[in-house]
Design goal:
Helix 3 (77-93) packs antiparallel against helix 4 and helix 4 runs parallel beside helix 11. The protein has twelve helices and two strands, in the order αββααααααααααα. The model is unreliable at 41-54 (pLDDT under 50). Strand 1 and strand 2 form a beta hairpin. It is globular. The protein is an all-alpha fold and 256 residues long.
Length: 256
């Protein structure tokens, strides 16, 4: 292939990428408007003498700008709906810190569950069946959890997911299902590189150990500062690419 052909091919790829980007932004904008209408929140949260930014416009741009680099086209629709819902509610909290952040954190938690299910658990189920790892042989909480994940279609809660990574990272002697999960992420090296990377592991550890996704949710008492902390760890305030959600999405990145 000569230089001219390569240039033409490159131009065609750029054109297709631009079309995909425009389509994605339009889809996100549509979802933001729909969910904002549902919540009945048309809040102005940034004002100046010359301009007013509405939450719908801001949320659309922050999501597309942040997640576009890791190809948001791979992200499930239910994930986007929960992120958008969380952000609409979060920006309403910014104006009234007396509100409980439960609904923001719950929406982000649901978004995280969607990613774990679609990017990790589905593949693990298939892998476990191919390896004939479908029998529970150890009376252990984590083994029972993974048995239910494989055979009953249960979700893998983020706390259990972190515990699995901790056991693997610390070189514990692994039981049957633990070892199967270890073999699964080892086979798919792109998962191993993300999950055992120090920054991701540290961020996930802070999230799980904060109890924001567990005890604090169940007592219906999440302060604005705790909500901010959860949002920062989960999606990096739409700036930090070392955040939990961004790194999980990055496992699906397609190299061009």
């Amino acid at each position: 292939m000569n230089i001219q052909q390569l240039q033409l091919e490159n131009q065609d790829l750029k054109r297709k990428l631009k079309i995909a980007e425009m389509w994605m932004e339009r889809e996100v904008r549509f979802q933001v408007e729909k969910i904002a209408n549902f919540h009945k929140q048309w809040l102005i949260f940034a004002e100046s003498e010359n301009r007013k930014e509405y939450s719908e416009e801001y949320i659309t741009s922050q999501i597309t700008d942040f997640i576009w680099e890791v190809l948001m086209l791979n992200v499930p629709a239910s994930f986007m709906e929960n992120v958008i819902s969380a952000e609409i509610q979060y920006h309403s909290l910014e104006d009234n810190h007396n509100f409980d952040g439960l609904w923001v954190v719950s929406s982000y938690h649901k978004a995280l569950d969607v990613l774990i299910e679609n990017f990790i658990t589905k593949g693990f189920r298939k892998f476990a069946h191919k390896q004939n790892q479908t029998q529970l042989r150890k009376n252990d909480v984590l083994e029972k959890t993974l048995n239910s994940v494989v055979n009953k279609g249960y979700i893998l809660w983020v706390g259990r997911f972190f515990h699995l990574l901790k056991l693997i990272k610390e070189d514990w002697e692994l039981y049957d299902y633990w070892k199967c999960f270890h073999d699964y992420i080892t086979k798919y090296n792109y998962l191993w590189e993300v999950f055992l990377e120090d920054n991701f592991y540290r961020c996930l550890s802070k999230l799980v150990n904060s109890d924001i996704l567990w005890k604090k949710r169940h007592v219906w008492n999440i302060s604005f500062e705790e909500t901010k902390q959860a949002r920062s760890l989960l999606i990096g305030d739409f700036k930090n690419t070392e955040s939990v959600i961004y790194k999980l999405i990055e496992t699906q990145k397609i190299e061009c």
